[in-house]
Structure formats: C-alpha cells, structure tokens
Amino acid sequence: MLVLVASVGRAGDEQQGYFEQSVALEGEQKYSEALETLNKITGPRAHDYIVELRRGWLSYLLGDYDGAIAAYRQATRLNSQSIEAKLGLMLPQLAASKWADAERTGLAVTRLDPGNYLANSRLAYVYYSQARYPDAAEYYALVLKSYPGDIEMRSGYAWSLFMQQRREAARIEFKKILAVSPSHQAALKGLKLCP
After folding, report:
1. Is residue 54 part of a domain?
2. What span, in angstroms and rounded, lies between the C-alpha atoms of 44 and 182?
3. Domain count, the chain
4. Which range marks the domain in which residue 41 is found?
5. At what angle do helices 99-112 and 83-95 cross, to 10 degrees?
C-alpha cells in the first residue's frame, strides 16, 4: 500500500513539473517543446483554466491560430469573467484577420473593464483594419484620454482622422507626434500628405 501511495505521489509531482518545464522551454524559445511538455499533463488538470490559457498562448506563438482560439475559448468557458483569457483570445483572432470575432471579444472585455487599454487599442485596430475610420478614431481617442503620451495610439488616431478626410485635425495630431519623436515615420508620411 505504501508503495502505491509513493508512486502516485511521484506521478503527481511529475505532473506538476510539466507546467514549470513548459515555462522554462518557452523562455528558451522552444515553443513546440513547451507545448508538447504542457500536453503531458493528464487527468482532470489537463484542462484546468491555467493550462488552457497557456496552451492558447503557446499555440499562438507557433502560428496555430485555430488551436489557440480553441484553447482560449475553453479558458473563457472555464472562467467567463476572465479578462486575460479574452485578451489572449483576441491575439489569434487578430492574427487570422477574424475581425468580427475580435470585435465581439474586445467588446466583451470592455463590458467587464470599460477602460481596458489592450481591449480598446485592439478594437481601434480592428476598426481601422476594416476601414471603419470613425469607429477607429473613437477608440483611439478613448485610449488617448487615459494614455495621452502613447505615440502609437496618437498615430492611429491621426491616420483615422486622415482617412476620414479630416486633414487639418490629422495634421495637428501628426505635428504633436513629431514634436516629441521627430523621426516617427508614419507621422512624417502623414504630415506630407496633409495640405
């Protein structure tokens, strides 16, 4: 009986070690090995929230966007209030240009956390990528309220204005960027295109 308990204990310890080994392998940029090691976790823990979250991340890093989406969706099913799982889900959705899905996911985050930087900035990108420039400008402006020094968000805002033919407003924003970052290529290009 003691032998059985000891062997079960060792198997449990080995199971615990797979997660840590996976993290270490990721640190060495061995993403395939990290995922293979993570997938050695068996039993009920194989589909714990944290394991699914990690599986989604590693699948995303490997360019397996469908696998990443499936894992992140499972993590959100396991914890419907998880902002981190939803933000993770947005990554493969964006990478796969699944704009409608990314929009739904981003809006789900903003219902839980209206000022979330990542959700709002990614929603701005989603709208810009779909040529929905008024919506993009709205979300870039929302981010800039809390992060007025974010040059990349200001650049997105300026380009959203430019694409709406709001050239004077865009020019002002491009100049704000160039005042602090004179070699910012997107702002230089934008300013040249404004009258």
Report:
1. yes
2. 55
3. 2
4. 1-100
5. 160
Instruction: Encode pLDDT of 77-113 as tens digits.
Output: 999 999 999 999 999 999 999 999 999 999 999 999 9
Tell me: do 15 and 84 sit in the same domain: yes
The predicted structure's pLDDT at residue 46? 86
Convert 88-131 into a string of H (helix), E (strand) and C (coil): HHHHHHHHCCCHHHHHHHHHHHHHHCCCCHHHHHHHHHHHHHCC
Q: What is the pLDDT of residue 184?
A: 97
Residues 171 and 188 sit within 8 Å (Cβ to Cβ): no
Contact 160, 151 (CB under 8 A): no
Q: Check whether residue 19 and residue 94 sit in a common domain.
A: yes
State residue 8's pLDDT score.
Answer: 39
Q: CA nearest 56: which of 15, 27, 86, 80?
A: 86
